[in-house]
Amino acid sequence: QKEVEQNSGPLSVPEGAIASLNCTYSDRVSQSFFWYRQYSGKSPELIMSIYSNGDKEDGRFTAQLNKASQYVSLLIRDSQPSDSATYLCAVNYDYKLSFGAGTTVTVRA
Amino acid sequence: DVKVTQSSRYLVKRTGEKVFLECVQDMDHENMFWYRQDPGLGLRLIYFSYDVKMKEKGDIPEGYSVSREKKERFSLILESASTNQTSMYLCASTRDPSYNEQFFGPGTRLTVL
Fold first, then answer.
1. Whole-angstrom Cα distance, residue B103 to residue B98?
2. Tens digits of per-residue pLDDT, B1-32?
3. Smallest Cα distance from B103 to chain A, Å
4. What is the DSSP letter of A82?
5. For residue B2, what pLDDT is reported?
6. Is A103 exposed, middle or buried (0-12, 13-18, 19+ CB in 10 A)?
7. Which residues does B1 contact at the CB level (< 8 Å), separation at least 6?
8. B90–A43: do the CB atoms touch at under 8 Å?
């Protein structure tokens, strides 16, 4: 299984701040990358997909991909208490997803 | 919206029982996956299927089997449940495995006593 590494966390940010999550992967041939949000006791929910180098924005979320450096990141702007969750990075290898261990984010009011 | 449903949210079984976990998706996806998720071990792929009656082993297939008789339904079978199979089981599906944007069901929390 290919390696996907995430910053270990937990990450605590004040409400309204930017939360920054990072993910590195081991295989250069990967072409699709995903961020999932998982609330405690719930299943992962897809929040961002990114396939090309650069930034992709969706609401308060921005995903950044740099294939040369083999990293993908997620920025959460104007963090809200409802953003408190574990965020999983996933990379598509050979038609299978490899997941990172997750970074737990806590947004404190 | 993609809808993936799983037969039970919580299940309690005894050691040695045969356990069936069912997953149904309503978006005509050909590709379906079964994972288990455990604290400290993350999400691990058990089996996947790219078509009806087709199955492929994932990273941890031992002790499990699967069935895909219809496109929308993918079943995970624990032939003889053991306590180390206590876990959260997650089903997912995707339309295009080359991109592999997977959508998950709500999960089944299985406890084997």
1. 15
2. 669 999 999 999 999 999 999 999 999 999 99
3. 7
4. G
5. 67
6. buried
7. none
8. yes
